[in-house]
Amino acid sequence: MFTWSKTFYQVTGGKIQVNYQSIGSGAGAAQFLGKNLDFGASDVPMPKDKYQQVAGQFVQFPVIIGSIVIAYNVPEIAYQKTGKYLNLTAEVIALIYMGNITQWCDPRIKALNPGLADKLPCKDIVAVHRSDGSGTTAAFTLYLSKAYPAWNQTVSWGYTVNWPADQKAKGTGAKGNEGVAQAVLQTPYSIGYIEFAYWATNKDKYDQVGGVAFVRNDNDGKYYFPTTENVAMGAAAGLERYIKKYGAPPAPDADWNPVSIEFSNPPRGYPIVSFTYVFLWKDYAAEGYGDAATKAALLKAFFRWVLTEGQKPENIVEGYIPLPSSIANIGLEALNMVKP
Amino acid sequence: MTAARKLINWLGLGLFALLGVAAVVPLFLIIGDIYIKGIDAINRLGGLWHFLTALPPTPFDEKGGIGPMLVGTLYMTALGALLGIAVGFPLGVYIGEMRREKFANVSRAAVNILVEFPTIVVGLFVYAVMSLAKQSLNQYLLDPLSKALSPVGGWITQFIGPLDGFNAYAGAAALAIIMIPYVALITASAYASIEQQLREAAYAIGGREFNALFVVLRKAVSRAVVTAALLGTAKIAGETAPLLFTAFGNTYYAPFTGPTAAVSLWIWYAAQTPYSVQIASAYGAAAVLLTIILIIFIVARIRG
Amino acid sequence: MLGLLLVVLLIPYLIAAYGLLFVKLRWGLRLFGAFIVATIGLLTAMFLVEAYPIIARDGVAVFLRTSWDPARESYGVLQALAGTVLTSAVAMALAMPMALGVAVTINEILPARLRGIFGSLVDLTATMPTVIYGLWGLFVLGPTLQSLINYLPGGMMTSPYTLFTAGVLLAIMITPYAAAVIREGYALVPKPVEEAVYAVGATRFEAALIKLRYVRNYILGGFFLALGRAMGETVAVAMVVGGNYARFTTNIFESGVTISSLIALQFPNAASYQYMVPALFAGALLLTLFGLAINAAAIYIIQKWQI
Question: Do residues A45 and A54 touch, judged by C-beta distance below 8 A?
Answer without folding.
Answer: no
